[in-house]
Amino acid sequence: MDLNLPSFDCRLSRGDDGVTRIYDCLRCKFVALTPEEWVRQHFVNFLITELGYPRGLMANEVSLKLNRTARRCDTIVYSRQGRPLAIVEYKAPTIVITQSVFDQIARYNSVIGAPYLIVSNGLSHYCCHFDGKNQSYTFLRQIPGYESL
Fold first, then answer.
1. Cα separation values, 14 from 7, 10, 143, Å
2. What pTM does this model have?
3. Domain segments of the chain: what residues?
């Protein structure tokens, strides 16, 4: 599926089970190719190649506890000191990004405490800055490069 992201030479494989998989450069393994995973891999590539996000300071599928329930944050970007700088939530291209998607990432951020929240369905991308002191969000025109976070 065409996305509003740069294409890249992704590595695909088909297992004996017939499942197509895509290589995740952050997890260093092949994972099942779903529409959301297609978005994730393209978006991670965009962050690394276009915006200078260091691969070694990013992680996919990070576990967290929210109200004693195990959840997973799609991607977290860390500072060089190991603090969360941004969390990213992905949806399949067919999923419209609504307020409930922002509510989901805001709940995750109540645990993580990152100053930037990014949401993408591969077609539309949104980024906001979270001001923890005032508990307010400001939407940005574009996703900042890593050095600007």
1. 20, 13, 33
2. 0.94
3. 12-148
